[in-house]
Structures are given as C-alpha cells and as structure tokens.
Give the backbone structure.
Amino acid sequence: MTTILIVEDGQALRAILARTLEREGYAVLVAGDGVDAIGQANAHSGRIDLLLTDMVLPTLSGPGLYDRLKAERSDLRVLYTSGYGRDDLAARGLIDENMKFIAKPFALADLVIALREAIGE
C-alpha cells in the first residue's frame, strides 16, 4: 500500500485531505507542521512513498522538511502545495520548474491526479 505523509497547518483541510486519500486507498500519516512531520516519519517504521506538504509552514518550510526527510528516505517523493501561486513562490526563490506543485484551492480530483503523477502511478 502506498503511504502518504500529509503536512498541512490548516486543521480542516488536513482532515479533508486525509479522508479523501484514505478513500482512494492510500495509507495516510498526518502532521500539522514540519516538526510534527519529522516525528511522524521517525515513528513510522514502514515506507513513506510521498510527502504532500504545504510550502509555507510555521516551523519548517516544505522544501526544508523534504530535504530533512529525504536524507533518511532517499526514495521519498514530494508534491508541494500552497495558497501562493507558482510564480509568486518562484520570485521568492522557494520553487523551481522541476518541483511538483499544485496551487490551492484545488479540486480534490485534481489533487489525486497530481499525487498519482508525483508517485509515478
């Protein structure tokens, strides 16, 4: 089973994402910020296939979190999300054209498609 670690500081959105992805057949871990995500990853003995993370988080940026987790899970993939558009994030030096990204708000069906592409399904 494919496991996704969701990192989203909005509690309501985090719950919706978790329910949606579980209905799609994914195993889901959830965290509200980068520190919590590192704790979830460390406590999870199995594989984590994809990190679904907001770009801007209270304790650690999405890219910073991905770098930390990837150091121990070399096969980890990532899909970034943000309320800021790709152009705004690029202007701030937070994202480049090679990063998988979906802008908020998004339709849940579009998210599932983007996740499948990021995972390589």
